[in-house]
Amino acid sequence: MKFDTLPHQCLVDEMLQIRVQGLRAGERLNLKLWSCFNDAVWRSEAVFLADSRGVVDLSTQAPVSGSYTGVDSMGLFWSRAPVSSEIAKGYDGKSTDPLTATLTAERDDGAPPISHAVRRVYMNEGVVSRKVRERGLVGKMFEPNRPGPHSTVLVVGGSSGGLAWSQEVAALLASRGYAALALAYFGAEGLPPTLDRIPLEYFGTALEWLGAQPNIAADQVAVVGASRGGELALLLGATFSEIRAVVAYVPSGILWPAYPASGNGAWTSGGKELPYAKTLTYEQWDEALATGNAREGSFDWYLIPLKDAAYANKTSIRVENINGPVLMISGIEDRVWPSTGLTEFAVERFKRLGFRHPVKHLAYADAGHSIAWPNAPTTMLKSKHPVSGEEMDMGGTPEGTARARQESWPRMLEFLSGALGSG
């Protein structure tokens, strides 16, 4: 029994061909994938029956039981979940590097199992990175280690702040040939502690700084953001004409207030807060439920105020001013906020005002809020927000969100290539 050739290191968004040969026809094979995140052991498991040639191939065969169903070459990766301390003992002796996953294969006849460790990284050897602490900016720059000029992507995260999401996306984009600046705008040293009255001029400074870098193609700049960063990506595209393409994950076409709530707006321009929408108060929500005007368990507390067309227009992002194509990606079962419905406000505005560039909204059934690069675990649907401490329900199903990640990521890369040229 042996694995077909597998890499010892690759990018996290790469698909692997997991194949085991040397079995007897019809023999049961137990595959497990182990890894360690945040001092917890994560594991997935699937049982297969070898085909007539004595081969198990995850790209063509579905498991007969396990942590995922159906044919999925990367099912073991996204279906990983934390395990009990007793089960975690099976991880003894394996790598504690959070980027390393260890695949094990065990047959029923008692033969020793085989294993293969693969380190899945965000940045390949052809990328160089550096901290950015100039002109009040807090970020991290990733660039291909070859002469430019390079098409460039500004990457902004959401309400978690800092660089946690943005630097991972930026590193992956740089590994695909783009220069990418992961930019924090709150929640980092020297910046506001929360998403509260963030001046758009800060992002203008970042664009000026990018344009002054020697290996940057200043006329080929895109912005990518997620959640409140998706809202921000649309807003930046509508504000700065040097941005030539926008990618917004689980975004909103409507502007919203500070988070956590402070009574202020999230964004300012020229020292003035931009108009923003408010959700129903608890009292208004209770009244709407009592009168039958709201649905229990729905996001009507977001959407009811926006039924007022004048109010929705006042708080809408002026997306018609974006100077290039737009890709928006949402999960229909998002439980953090109704990203599909909020994205449709932007879609409707594009159509109504005759936007001259291509617009695409990819809305995925059974997918929740955490759509990004593929193959990451999607099993943890609930978590505590790192800034507010609120309990967050990401929504969707693990499989639905995994499918959305697998399908949307290459389409996002294709979109950037078409908008800016290949990386």
Kindly estimate the percentage of residues that lie in beta strands according to DSSP.
Answer: 25-35%
Compute the separation of the termini in Å: 40 Å
* Lateral arrangement of strands in the main beta sheet: 11-12-14-13-16-17-20-21
Can you tell me the CATH superfamily of the largest domain? Alpha/Beta hydrolase fold, catalytic domain
* Overall mean confidence score, pLDDT: 95
CATH architecture of the largest domain: 3-Layer(aba) Sandwich
| Low-pLDDT segments | none
The CATH C-level class name of the largest domain = Alpha Beta
Number of helices: 10
What characteristic shape results from the CA principal axes? globular
**Biggest pleated sheet:** 8 strands, mixed
Please state the structural category: alpha/beta
Q: What Rg is obtained from the alpha carbons, in whole angstroms?
A: 23 Å
Fraction in helix = 10-25%
Give a count of the beta strands, DSSP E runs of length 2 or more: 23
Overall structural domain count: 2
CATH topology of the largest domain: Rossmann fold
GO biological process, one term: acyl-CoA metabolic process
Active site: 227, 334, 369
Domain BAAT/Acyl-CoA thioester hydrolase C-terminal: 198-421
Family: Belongs to the C/M/P thioester hydrolase family.
